[in-house]
Amino acid sequence: MKKCLICDSLIEPFVSFGRMPIANGFLQADQFQEEYFFELAAGFCPECTMVQLIEQPEPQKMFHENYAFYSSTSTRMAAHFQELAGRVKDSYMKSKDPFVVEIGSNDGITLRHFAAAGFRHLGVEPSANVAEAARKKGVQTVCQFFDENVAREILGAHGPADVFLGANVMCHISTLHSVVAGIKLLLKPEGVLIFEDPYLGDIIQKTSYDQIYDEHAFYFSLRSLTFLFERHGMEVIDVMPQDVHGGSMRYTVGRKGAHDIAGSVELLRERENALGLHDPATYHRLRENIERSRDELMNLLGKLKKQGSRVAGYGATSKSTTVINYCGITPELVEFIGDTTPIKQGKFSPGMHIPVRPYADFENNHPNFALLFAWNHVAEIMEKERQFLANGGRWIVYVPRVEIL
User: Fold this and answer.
1) Euclidean distance between CA atoms 111 and 122, whole angstroms
2) What is the C-alpha separation between 67 and 22, in angstroms, rounded?
3) Can you name the residues that pair with 126 across neighbouring β-strands?
4) Cα 205–247–146 angle (5° rounding)?
5) Which of 110, 123, 207, 212 has CB atoms 3.0–4.6 Å from 105's, for a disulfide?
6) pTM to 2 decimals?
7) Residues 195, 83: one domain?
């Protein structure tokens, strides 16, 4: 049995997705033989209630000089992070010569707004290619994995921070205690940590099991985060649900007693009790729902294949790797995946090796059905793909249920 990464108690595994490759490990044909696999499984800690992976690949296998995700490719996310930057600037950058640090800053999608306004800032990004993309936009960025030692280096070079940001990154880091200790060390006494990640409650309610993949070491709830931050003399002072990434939560955290606690915190605590996020039975029901979703999707794809319908994937996302490999979706069922990210085009999906083609291949030769892997961007995609529908195309979705739209 594996011990919890937060409290050292024994984890209770509740689901295994079997043999799984690196989610963002899109590869060439000559790399098939050397492809890395691990068992993707999740468990629940009955002591601190943290949901987490049983095994996570080492960080260097996931975040490196060829990392295949650039945040700025989505106009919806660009607008989202512009809103976040504006809120932070208006509420927390009030001191003389304020300083903001962001962990996992990617290509500078958030920090570029601080750079443009002349605020002192620093991005800490471990993937060299996206870190370089941020620098080209004028965003000061260091290429490192953040921990307590890096926090000391930043403190010595730049002084303490007013705000520490993280978007879809805190849940990636298995060494969370070192990260939180570093954040507390780096923040001013009244400084705040603001971060957002996929929310466990949404995953359970929507059966969005594709949120479970190698990069996501943890699946946060308010209850589990309260346990974590209490160990470091910190507390959650505000929460704000977000409709991005299929359902996320934005948390604001400060030193214990340094800030008033918003009423939203107690409301979320009550909601989590009603959802049973503290109850092991909730996760066994989730496994049953995941298995049902898999079976229904494969039955549908098999039926369409027998009918002679063409099915293509839409969006070569990290999340799609879990669905494709867990369900066993082969190129015979989905002939290709259309994607707008140049670094993925001309490669193959991890594990099942479905060809990834430029978006133009989808646009110029519409399939009968498009399997929507990028379902978390559904509003943006539906607006863009009116012609696909006008030509008689249909969408296949599997969150929150398997159906044809």
Assistant:
1) 8
2) 11
3) none
4) 125
5) 123
6) 0.91
7) yes
